[in-house]
Give the backbone structure.
Amino acid sequence: MNDRLDPSLALPDLAAIRAAHERIRPHVHRTAVITCAALDAEVGARLWFKCENFQRIGAFKARGASNAVFSLDDDVARRGVVTHSSGNHGAAIAYAARRRGIPAWVVMPEGSARVKQENVRRFGATIRHSGMDAASRAAACAEVERDTGATMIHPFDNASVIAGQGTAAVELCESVPDLDAIVAPVGGGGLLSGTSIAAKGLRRDLLVWGAEPANAGDAAQSFRTGKVEPLPAGVTLTIADGLRTPLAPRTLGAIRAHVDALETCGEDAIVRAMRMTWERAKIVVEASAAVPLACLLEGRYPAAGKRIGVILSGGNVDLERLPWQ
Amino acid sequence: MNDRLDPSLALPDLAAIRAAHERIRPHVHRTAVITCAALDAEVGARLWFKCENFQRIGAFKARGASNAVFSLDDDVARRGVVTHSSGNHGAAIAYAARRRGIPAWVVMPEGSARVKQENVRRFGATIRHSGMDAASRAAACAEVERDTGATMIHPFDNASVIAGQGTAAVELCESVPDLDAIVAPVGGGGLLSGTSIAAKGLRRDLLVWGAEPANAGDAAQSFRTGKVEPLPAGVTLTIADGLRTPLAPRTLGAIRAHVDALETCGEDAIVRAMRMTWERAKIVVEASAAVPLACLLEGRYPAAGKRIGVILSGGNVDLERLPWQ
């Protein structure tokens, strides 16, 4: 770990990501890397997709959650873990807690997607419902911590979680050693932080690009201004529901240090990229996972002719309601 | 080739399938084999899915069509190829003909799925529409043959096509050498014929099971009676639109010789298996490709605890109209 004076800014280094990789190996899949000639032709570059939609619980979040849960000392772990999550991180904590045999509580906003609630319950975690706002979520988590002694594992503002998320990029670089760039989506920034630390740690000249919905374009703005910007006022309307989250100072620090470009795309482009991934590559990805391809299709990066790794973050979709219908 | 006296019954042997494999290697993908712990748990067996939904044109049909097209002598090939197909075989012939630089005509019934028509046009083939009945299709093909000198390549009643389809099973057995059984869907029987010849040629004790929709249960009946039975009278109502085809004497011969069980499943089971593959394995498969899993989920084979290869035949789906909606 890179021990800064302020622990709220501490970040993992490549060694911590490698240690995380060893720690979580029994608990997560080494996911497939696939290619698709039709998508290469659409983008005008060669793409390698790291299929975290095939990951345990259907998203990369299994990596960070497993690393955080298995990093706890036994006497702390025994009292359980708590988190808040609109979905995939909650399922990931539930999954990792069951693997370790400890209790888990997940605070979720009312009205979360059915499939994401089922993903949490499947692993025996207890769901606590809260309001949509950050204060309501934090209060519900604090209540669980107070009542049970459980350890809070934040979805992204946590160095162990970030280290775990970085392991996908390590595997991608092992599978395809000569990439020019890696693209990852950004919500709270855990995945992009871990990806960028891993990528630059492995090869200084490997480009790292972030991709965000314009309708939740706070990270792109924070990247420019250098301070954590809030989400646009009012309800944030993006189909990429995993990315409706502002950065933390910790993740902004990693992203400012290691990311080469952070670009945004519109909702139509996200739906188009999601549908194209289903139709051409024949895999199920959620809207948040399609944001990097959307930015590539929109020409947001200097991608032409390059060899590009794309992290497909997850595949948890409510099949009753598809965005193009 | 196994040269019988009656050429309409000729079948490839394992050597012909291996030769096909070499011939088509530059033109088709060696598709991924994936596993899914959640589906293993549902079936109570270990499953390896051969992902022909990732194949060129989105279906295994690229194998047989490529083998047939690239087996033609130059002076014959030059005049082009013609076939009839409700979809995937047509796209496969169009694809293979473009790879060889020769013209192709595809006779399709009016009202074929949009995505399947686009798949044919994408490769520059000419579509000729016909009625739904076999006589109308055959007449349209004969007209093209007469007018152009093109060679007819039947979707399954063709030894070169069957040899090509068998290459998927060869790859599956290379990837997972210790399978107990392989399951493939059956419509006209080209895939199941090739699969069973390859499997038994590689290992006499490897079980081969066929899977068919009960609503188009002619192959299961033919398997019992030993003669080619017609489709049930009237319109055949199955969502598995790739499997609405009777066997030919040729494919029945292979299936009777090499297949250990041929079972059927209901429409609800097909929809459930298709949806489960999307939700759990996160891959897009068409209804016909879900028929083997449907039969496994329904307990139609002695599968418990076995190691089973499942050929996922294709992934061409109209995403506007999903069967569970």
Residues 134-148 of chain A form the longest helix (15 residues).
